[in-house]
Every structure is written in C-alpha cells, then in structure tokens.
Write a structure and sequence with these properties.
The complex is a heterodimer of chains A (about 400) and B (about 260).
Chain A: H1 3-13, H2 47-54, E1 67-72, E2 75-81, E3 86-90, H3 91-97, H4 115-123, E4 128-132, E5 142-148, E6 154-163, E7 168-177, E8 183-194, E9 199-207, E10 211-222, E11 227-234, E12 240-243, E13 246-249, E14 255-264, E15 269-272, E16 275-278, E17 284-293, E18 297-306, E19 311-321, E20 327-336, E21 341-350, H5 354-361, H6 367-379, H7 388-402
Parallel strand pairs in A: 1-5, 4-6, 5-7, 6-8, 7-9, 8-10, 9-11, 10-12, 10-13, 11-14, 12-15, 13-16, 14-17, 15-18, 16-18, 17-19, 18-20, 19-21
Antiparallel strand pairs in A: 1-2, 3-4
Helix pairs in contact in A: 1-4, 5-6, 6-7
Chain B: E1 2-11, E2 14-24, E3 29-33, H1 40-48, E4 53-62, E5 65-66, H2 72-78, E6 80-83, E7 90-94, H3 95-102, H4 109-115, E8 125-126, H5 132-146, E9 150-154, H6 162-176, H7 188-194, E10 198-202, E11 216-221, E12 224-229, H8 231-241, H9 244-255
Parallel strand pairs in B: 3-10, 3-11, 6-9, 9-10
Antiparallel strand pairs in B: 1-2, 1-4, 4-5, 7-8, 11-12
Helix pairs in contact in B: 3-5, 5-6
The chains are: A alpha/beta (about 400), B alpha/beta (about 260).
C-alpha cells in the first residue's frame, strides 16, 4: 500500500470523528464541488474584490511581495514567485515534483485527528507549498490568498511551508470570502517545518462572510535554534471558527511566539487555542491573545507543555468586553513535567476601566474617541522581530476596527 | 475666568463640599491648602467635570459660560486642563501618542519633552511603570501640549524628589506663562502684563510655591472654604498653628 493510501485509509476511519472543541459541523450541508475558475491576473480583478483582498493583507500589485499564490474555491488561479531563494507551487504540483515531500505530508497534523482533517485528507483540493532554500533570506513576504467565491462551497486545502536551514521567510496569508458570498466552509490543513537556525514569520488575516464556518488545522515543527513568529487576526464576523494550532519545539534553542488578535461581533463564535509542546531543553514560547467581544463569543484556550529542562514559556490572554451580552472565556493551561521549567500565565477579562476613558476625556477626546483609543491600545501587540511590512498590515486592520469602520 | 457660586458636591450620595464660592480672574494663580480628606481633590475634579462628582447645588462658570453640566471633554476643549494625583496606566498607548491627543494645535513633541526631561519616555506606554516624579513630568508634558487656560493641579509635588520639584515648577510656569525660563520672544514685563492663564493648585507642603508664584491662597476645611489670603502668610500660619486654628476662626465667623 502506498504512503498516501495509508493516509486516506486512516482518514476514512475518522470521517465521523467529532473534534475535541467547537460545534460539530454537518459537512453535508456544504457543496463538495465548485466550478472551475480560470487563471487570473490579480491586477485585473474587480475593484470590490481588490478591496477585500487588500483588507486581508494582500498586495494586489505584488510590488512588495516576493511571490503570490491565490486559490479561489477549488482552483489555483495565480501562482508566481520573483525570488530565486524560494519556491512556491500548488501543493499538488509540489507533490509531483518532489518525491521527498511525502516525508512532510501529514507529519505535523494527523489525518485522523478529527472529521475535518479526515475530510481534507480525502477531498483535499490544492493549497500552497512554499520552501525557502537553505540560507536564503527572503526580504519581501510571500503572500497566499484563500478565497471563497461560490456560495455554500467547502474549500479544503493543504498547505506546507518548509524553511530550510538558516533561511528566513515571511508569509502573509489572507483568507476571505467574496463580498457576495454569505455561507461557506474553509478547512485548512497547514504543516510548517522550520529547520535548524531558520526563521518563519507567518501572519494570517481572516475576513469571512457572515455564515462561514472555519476549521484551520495547523501543526508546526521547529528544529534547533529555529524561530517561529505567528500572528493571527480575525476582526470580522465569522459564524464559527475553531482552531488549536500546535507548535512542537523539537530542537534546542527553538523559539515560538504566537499572537492572536480577535474581535467577536454579535453572532460570531470563536474558539481559539494555541499549544506549545516543549520536549527539548532550552526552548522558549510565548502565546499572547487580545480578545474583544462586541457581543460575540470567544473561547480562548492555551496550553504550554514543558517536558524538558530549562524550558521557559508564557501564556497571556487579555479580553475586553465592550457589550454586556458578549462572552469571553479564557482557559489557560500550564503543564510542567519537569521540575526545572518556568511556565507562567496572565489572564484578565473585563470591561474598559471608566477612569481610563475619563483620563482621555480630560485631554479633549469625546467618549467614543476615548474608547476607540483604548481599544486600539489594547490590540496594539508589538511583536519582537516582526518585519515592518507585516506590522503595517496589522496596524491597518486594528485602526480600521477601532475607529468604527470595521466590524 | 472661573467663577464658582454656592457649589455643593456629593460623591456616592455623601456630601463632600458645602456652598463653595470661588473666583479666579485671568492671570491669577490660586493655591488650595487643607488637611487630608477635606475635599480639595473633589473640588478640582468637579471643576473638570468627572461624572463621579455630583453637583447638587450651585453653578460653575468658565469665561461666563455655565459649564456645570458640561461633559469633561467639552470643558477640556474650552480650555480647562487637569493633573490628577494618580492617573491610570494606558497600555498600548505611547506617551508621544498621548501628547498628540492632548495637542489642540500642532506642537513640537520632542522640544516639549526635552523641557521636562521626558524624551526617553516618548515611546513608553503612558504611566506604565513610571515613578511618582515621572508621572508628574508626563502629566505636565501632556498639559504643555494641551495648553489650557485654566490649569488645575492636584499636589504637583507629591512623590517628586527635591531635584525634580524645580523641573515640575518650571513646567507649571511654562503653562501658566510665569517665571523667567523658556521664553524667547517678549520681555518679561510685557508677558506679565498680558498673560491671562490662570491656575488652581492643591498643595500640602507648599514646596511648589518656591518655584511657582501664587496670588491667592484658600483653606478648604471640612468641605468649606474657610479663609483666603496671601499664600506665604497663610502657609506660615498653618505651619505654626496647624489646621486646628481654622476651627476657631470658623467659630469666630459664626459668632460674628
């Protein structure tokens, strides 16, 4: 039996398996097939589409990017790369070209983890493959865009990023639905491997339609001295989003930093976790979440697992409730399996302090402006080592929200 | 500039200030003495308009306009600026962003920051981990940018070490257009004649008066303005006899 048929076989066993967290989704309520889309030039799409792409960090001109991958529903509609140090392909093309890719295929995420991974293993339609060659320092980010353009369709993709030894790579992933799409589902399996001394900065911005259900399934493996910086931003309505990305710090000196900025508007349900598994001495992790509810529900999970000596990690969930009918539920978990680990967490959930608003009002801001300023400050998580271009994308999203144009 | 008539103020239903009358004219600096818990901060906070302080009787006029029920930010826009004793920490908002928020006109933030020795704090979150003196300097930097016509200061010298009190005084003078430092254009005489900035300063120790010349002092005792006079003279009187003397003065007034 081939490697792939073993994977499919495992997946078939799990096709009904409920996920550990999140509402159980009836996959049959979404369309399996989508119409085929022809290749497009991102510069020739409609202004409205351009706008929705820009809102998720996509540089439509591509001028400040080292490459662009775009997938609409089940079709790869654009893929080009302008830097010799990096490879970017549709994952199917990559599997055809590189036999060795099977060594990474379903190694960081299990195909039988739940019905969503199972579905992706069986029905998967494309996804991207990005590989930074050894010691390549890719200055401009690569961008990948996952777009749902057809009402009611389920998009299931499988992505792999490999950062070879000593390489540095920035990736911006934007996920969105077309303005006309209301309902849909996105299942995204992502497996990231950062080799010795490599560095991956990964920013993901989500902006979905109102009735869209999202199940990302992400596994990251870090080798010796590898660094992984991740930012996840979702500030717009999404029907139901559940994910629990797991980073395995498998080499001495590996460092992971994960930040999430979440806004749940009325009708949104987000169940967002983050896990760092530190089985090797001298590894470090930091997971930070800023959540705001304007009436929606946010469950914020986090798990630090220290299985080796000299491990240091911090988990932080801060939540701000801007409306009384919202819910923010922080569930931090610290698990030390050695006596020489330093794990900490900090969680605070509440409303904006009245005295902070009054302080700003005494400086001339009205109540609304004062609230927006505090919210913006709250969401302003500065990440050490984050490239300027990525920080810019985050700042734009945060500003847009806190000044009332978003949400 | 500021006229307070028959002001009675309650906090959480408890009356703190009783029938306060106060008139501050343009160009005047008044100081407010009084023991702890007597209502000094309540008076300043009520003038600024913080919602916790409920005016149950009386009026506050600023430049002839009744501001008694005006929201805080409207008063700020009209030219009232305050330094409260313990401002909150604003995480995620830098001092320089805060200074920008305060500025009604374009200001040179770097230059103002140099004036109060705050240049290295411009990128720090407002009040985050600041010492007592740093908080005062940061507040004064904001107020220099805000440039209010009426400056309300709640114990500007508290928590400030001796070296920094001079710096605090200098910044207060800058805002009030007093003192002799930091002005290039006009002669001191012209400036003294034309200045219209006014201030109300709460002070416990009176140390600030060494740097900031004040015109009138008031004693607030048990929620009542019990007497007014020359700041130095009154400070000496308090030094010698304590506030208990106010009780007997109050009794004399009642008898009269």
């Amino acid at each position: 039996m081939t490697e792939n048929s073993k994977i499919v076989q495992r997946a078939e066993q799990a096709i009904e398996k409920k996920a550990a967290y999140g509402r159980d989704i009836d996959l049959s309520s979404f369309a399996d097939q989508s119409e085929q889309h022809n290749a497009i030039d991102p510069q020739e799409i409609s202004d409205q589409q351009k706008k929705s792409l820009e809102a998720i960090g996509v540089d439509v001109s591509g001028a400040n990017r080292s490459g662009t991958f775009m997938q609409m529903d089940h079709s790869v509609v654009h893929c080009n790369v302008t830097n010799d140090g990096v490879e970017m392909l549709s994952i199917d093309e990559a599997l055809r070209r590189h036999g060795w890719l099977m060594d990474y295929w379903w190694k960081a995420v299990q195909p039988d983890a739940d019905k969503y991974t199972a579905r992706a293993a069986i029905h998967q339609e494309h996804g991207y493959f990005i590989r930074a060659l050894p010691n390549a320092k890719i200055e401009f980010p690569l961008q990948a865009c996952m777009y749902i353009g057809q009402e009611g369709v389920v998009q299931d993709v499988h992505n792999i990023i490999i950062v070879e030894e000593g390489a540095e790579l920035n990736v911006i992933t934007g996920c969105a639905t077309d303005p006309v799409v209301n309902k849909g589902m996105h299942i995204g399996v992502s497996e990231f491997y950062v080799k010795k001394g490599g560095k991956l900065s990964f920013t993901m911005i989500h902006r979905w339609g109102e009735e869209v259900v999202v199940r990302p399934r992400t596994g990251v493996v870090l080798e010796e001295d590898a660094q992984y910086l991740s930012n996840f931003i979702c500030m717009h309505k999404v029907n139901d989003l559940q994910m629990y990305p797991t980073v395995r710090l498998a080499g001495e000196g590996a460092v992971a930093r994960m930040n999430s900025i979440l806004v749940a508007v009325p009708g949104s349900h987000m169940d967002i976790g983050g896990r760092a598994v530190m089985d090797v001495p001298g590894t470090k992790a930091e997971l930070i979440t800023r959540s705001i509810s304007t009436g929606g529900i946010i469950i914020n999970r986090g798990h630090l697992l220290a299985g080796a000596e000299n491990v240091k990690a911090h988990l932080e969930c801060h939540g701000l409730l801007l409306q009384k009918d919202g819910v923010i539920h922080a569930i931090p978990e610290l698990e030390a399996r050695t006596d020489n680990a330093e794990l900490s967490h900090e969680a605070a959930v509440g409303k904006i302090a009245q005295e902070e608003i009054e302080y700003l009002m005494a400086r001339g801001l009205d109540e609304e402006e004062a609230t927006a300023t505090i919210v913006r400050g709250f969401l302003n998580v500065n990440i050490e080592g984050l490239p300027e271009s990525l920080q810019k994308e985050i700042d734009i999203a945060v500003n847009e929200f806190s000044f009332g144009k978003g949400a | 500039m500021l006229k307070i008539e028959g002001l009675t103020v309650a906090v959480n239903g408890k009356q703190i200030l009783h029938n306060i009358n106060l008139h501050i004219k343009p160009g005047e600096v008044h100081v407010l003495f009084g023991p702890n818990g007597t209502g000094k901060s309540t008076l300043i906070s009520t003038i600024m308009g913080f919602p916790k302080y409920q005016v149950t009787k009386g009026k506050i006029y600023f430049h002839g306009e009744d501001v008694t029920n005006m929201p805080v930010y409207e008063r700020a826009k009209r030219g009232i600026g305050v330094m409260i004793q313990r401002p909150p920490t604003l995480r995620g908002l830098s001092v320089s962003e805060m200074v920008e928020i305060c500025s009604r006109e374009k200001v040179d933030i770097e230059k103002l920051a140099r004036y109060v020795n705050m240049t290295s704090f411009l990128n720090r979150a407002v009040n985050d981990g600041f010492s007592g003196g740093e908080i005062k300097r940061s507040e004064l930097l904001q107020l220099m940018a805000q440039n209010p016509e009426l400056l309300l200061l709640d114990e500007p010298e508290s928590g400030v070490d001796v070296e920094n009190i001079a710096l605090v005084g200098q910044a207060v003078n800058y805002i009030l257009e007093r003192g002799t430092n930091g002005f290039e254009r006009e002669s001191l005489k012209v400036r003294r004649e034309h200045r219209h900035k006014a201030g109300l300063i709460i002070t416990h120790t009176g140390h600030i008066l060494k740097y900031v010349p004040a015109d009138v002092a008031h004693i607030l005792f048990r929620g009542t303005l019990s007497c007014s006079g020359n700041p130095q003279e009154m400070l000496e009187c308090i030094g010698h006899q304590g506030y208990e003397a106010c009780v007997s003065c109050g009794l004399l007034e009642v008898r009269a």
